[in-house]
Write a structure and sequence with these properties.
11 helices; cell membrane
Amino acid sequence: MFKEHVSIFCLSMFSLVFLIVIGKVLQLRELFLGLDIGLIEMLKLFGYLIPAVLLMIIPIATMLSVFLTFLRMSSDRELVALKAGGVSLYQLLPAPVVFGSLCTVLTLWVSMFGIAWGMDNFRSSILELAQTRAKVVLQPGVFNNSIPKLMIYSRSSSLATGDLEHVLVQDTSKDTGGVTIIAPKGKIISDTKQGEIRFVLHNGKIYRQDKNQISVLGFNQYVVRLSLSQLVKGVHLGKLRPSGMSYAQLQAIKKDPSLAESKSFIRKTDVEIPKRWAMPFACIVLGIFAMPLACAFEGMRQQMGVVMALGNFLVYYSLLSISMKSGEGGGGLPPDISLWIPNALFAVLAVVGLYLTAKERTINVTAMITHVILRFGKRKGGQ
């Protein structure tokens, strides 16, 4: 049974990750086209994004593994044969419990460390690619206006170091009102935390035209900030959100709310912390819940079984989403309680279902549906 759980789990994980990757390709198509990313870089970026989706995929795959295993056993009458041989349903619990526990440990690692590792590397890789693109855009001796609201000219530039010489920048962004900056030297610097590229200019002058007058201001250092959202479309690369932080970072904000930028940010952090615990333990809860559920649908085809299991997970995730929205809105129960309600509800259903199934008191839903369809067909044929 444990081997069958593992094989179905691997197949489910591969299928679900593949589907999500296809969706991400469509979502980030502007990013890939804008930065001219190759196949190797694309695969690397998707590898960094996978931990974020594993938090949801692993519980789904765990439930599917246990559900399809017991559905096959019940449909092939293996459960009946085991009961006839004196083996109760409770004696079959160790395999799904151990499997669900291992999946819980794996999801806990993803929740505590994997998500932050993936997002940090994803942001760093995108920033490096965007910085490389910005350096490529700054061709020596050419007036470059491919960056919105900026026209940049450099007599010479180094792609390796990002150093610029004899730089002219015309900045027409709203906050500056339109200025022309001339500097003998400059440098391109990237900032991963802020999600921006900076053009740092040294010992130059700023020319600002106001009607018929031109004002000149000298400077030792002047910084032109370029948000990556202007270069990279289809992905958020601004300040890090709670969903992309490590558990340690979330706890730091929890202890010191002054680190957060707004009350909304604090509420999202308060929701994210219990979510990082609730989702991993959903593996073992949904795994045990899948046992009596599969027995209730004895005789159902495997394809329909997949749809049924996904439907039950959708119910679970809908309840979790409602709790998350309620917590982020600041109303209702505290997130530390509300986010555990779906786990508690499905745990109760799992225990009750196991008890009724062991006592053979459950209703065969598949047989009941088939009976209703046949009766409806006979009535329709008689008319």
